[in-house]
Amino acid sequence: MILAGQLLLDSSSGDCRLSPGFVRFDNGYVAEVVEGELPKSADFGGQSWLISPGFIDAHLHLPQFDMIGAHGLPLLQWLSEYTFPAEKRWEDVDFARSMCRRVFQQCMSHGTTAMCAYATVHYDSAIAAIELATSLGLRGAIGQVLMDRGAPDYLCREANRLIDQTVKMIDRFPPTMRMSTAITPRFAVSCTRDLLTAAGKLSRERGPFVQTHLAETQEECEVVRRLFDEQEYVDVYNDSGLIGKRSVFGHGIHLNDRDLQILSGKEATIAHCPSANSFLRSGTMDRVKLARNQVKFAIGSDLGAGYERSMVRVGRSMIEAASTLHDEFPTASQAWHAITAGNADALGFADAGRIQAGFPADLVAIEPDIPWLDTKVSPLSMLMFAWDDRWIKQVWVQGRPRLPG
Ligand code: GUN
Ligand code: ZN
């Protein structure tokens, strides 16, 4: 299979460049990337097509796709009113499986080929989600949500049982797999110290991803102080052994330099979720502060608090959010980088986020209907701000086409 067009390639400085050329893939892997000219014939593409690596979503909630748009409440009320009841539906594993089929199809149709995702507290449904993601060839990690308090009884489980189930899930989907298990304590508000400590111990023993939420709202930070003897949020996770190289913390808005230094010292990642932050009115994450403290940065949709299924639109939200804080904000080229190679680097996906020979063929063929190459505006900026999902003509996951037709 040969795809021709403007290849979206990363440059070492944290942004992207475009180069005319083609990608050839075979048996699910990229065999050749040629820059310079377009070939005389190709299976897909043309001069004004964009050929992009598949997008990577560093933070989303699979069971929340059916409740996107529950607007108006702050985080903790939004969780009680809408989120927990939606997650209850996953006690029915058949429902969860069929929902995942829809959700993964939606992600892929928007160009997402890799993700770090939350399931629910229901073990069988989390297994169904990761099995399906694996069979579709998706890259990433999925976790059974761990909660032993601070949520309705129907979603709380005893800590030991949750840890035993996560151990079983890691046995089946270890860190070496293309789609692996993430240890997923929801956030400190819904976990006892015992549960967090057991999760931290398991992460040291087995080395999988850890994903949780951190300092998304001021109110949440206050609740954590109250629950954990006036400790700071970051210290609660640090004392539990949950902060490490493979830990991905959703949001991280309300953190000071000291907190960020702790995350940076342990090479942990913050998954910035700009559209969710504006939707829940949680605050604006300061990327400049993160960079100053050298904290690893990833970007996620956080569906369903986030309302954008397209990572391109999430990239655009990042620019918009950052430009309300400082005169210095990311360019569209940097945002394209963030949703591809940047996320791959932050998450340690050494085989994703780039168009590169030897990588799995996770690719998106895009045909814009605007003169993006023939303009004074930066082409990548025009594409990001004028973005139209209908431009996506095909998406390949490990070389398999995932859109009809
Ligand atoms: N904090 C704890 N759980 C959640 C969740 O499901 N979504 C968001 N945005 N924040 C959370
Ligand atoms: Zn989240």
Per-chain topology:
Blueprint: E1 2-11, E2 15-26, E3 29-35, E4 44-53, E5 55-61, H1 75-88, H2 93-109, E6 112-118, H3 123-136, E7 139-143, E8 145-146, H4 159-172, E9 179-185, H5 193-206, E10 209-214, H6 218-227, H7 233-239, E11 247-251, H8 257-265, E12 269-272, H9 274-279, H10 287-292, E13 296-299, H11 311-323, H12 332-347, E14 363-366, H13 379-385, E15 392-397, E16 400-401
Helix pairs in contact: 2-3, 4-5, 11-12
Zinc ion (ZN) binds at residues 59, 61, 213, 250, 302.
Structure, described:
- By secondary structure, the protein is α/β, with parallel strands linked by helices.
- It contains 13 helices and 16 strands.
- It has helices at residues 75-88, 93-109, 123-136, 159-172, 193-206, 218-227, 233-239, 257-265, 274-279, 287-292, 311-323, 332-347, 379-385; strands at 2-11, 15-26, 29-35, 44-53, 55-61, 112-118, 139-143, 145-146, 179-185, 209-214, 247-251, 269-272, 296-299, 363-366, 392-397, 400-401.
- β6 (112-118), α3 and β7 (139-143) form a beta-alpha-beta unit.
- α2 runs parallel beside α3 (123-136), α4 runs parallel beside α5 and α11 (311-323) packs across α12 (332-347).
- Bound molecules: guanine and zinc ion.
- Zinc ion is lined by residues 59, 61, 213, 250, 302.
Keywords, separated by commas or semicolons:
alpha/beta, 7-stranded mixed β-sheet, 13 helices, 24% strand, globular, binds guanine, binds zinc ion
